[in-house]
Amino acid sequence: MPAKKTAKTPPEPIVVDAGDYTLDRAPLGAHVSIAGGSWEAAARVREISATGNQIFTKQANRWIERDIDDVEKSRYAAAMRDTLVRWTCAHDSYLINLASPDVSLRARSIESFRAELRRCHALGLNALVSHPGNFMDDRASGLARNAEAIGIALAAEPGPTRLLMELTAGQGTVLGSTFEEMAALLDGIPTAVRDRVGVCLDTAHVWAAGYDIVSDYDGAMTRFDDVIGFARLGCLHLNDSKAKLASHLDRHELIAEGTIGEGTFRRIMTDPRLSSIPKILETPKGDAPAETDGRMLRLLRSYARG
Fold first, then answer.
1. In this structure, is residue 19 part of a structural domain?
2. Counting C-beta atoms within 10 Å of the first and last residue's C-beta, which end of the chain has fewer, N or C?
3. Which domain holds residue 62?
4. CA–CA separation, 298 vs 296, rounded Å?
């Protein structure tokens, strides 16, 4: 008789050297995949000793929506309890354009945005990061449409997740690339829901938008505080850039390997004004995501020592 086959023991998770997580005064981590189910994010954040993380709650480049049922909600919560993570956000779909002048696209975007909020609430996520839309026709009209749509969605979908509007690089007709325009967008959101909205600052985006966080870091950060305010800052996306200052190109690069360079990230990791702000990597992952993210986190944690 043929030998009886025995089940293989699943391999132990690979844990990479991501530095000393006890140095994380605020949650620090990376965007990780939920391939296989949202609960699979837990194994991926354990690999890199992350104390914070970001996910997509659905495929970001498709309109198809999905709901979070009680089984997934419980499974995700149980899996994440077995990690170091103490803060999690999601990033919404790249297809959503709440500023669009096209009535059908804007309506579809609002419905998709509402579904994003529902999934975040169901999973108990701390924040949903969202790009302002593309105005396409007139900038002021697009800004007003964007603010109105945010108000509609938040009013329709109450819950614990905070919305964080992300500063952009300013390519094409995208809104929100200047501190003044982001402040205007926030101020345009109905007062009944405005306190549920904050800002996400992406280093690669603000650099490409024209804020010189290399040669004038203090000036740029002071300007942010004067116009928007650190009280509204809910998350930092830490990305170096392949693009030049004021290029308006959104091109992420590994930390200390792009046009922003090491010095700015050292400043960020030791800036007392940012010490409590969650920080998330969105840098390229290459063929070995955990190893690459681990190397980036190890670098950032070494900067935190001062």
1. no
2. N
3. 30-282+296-303
4. 5
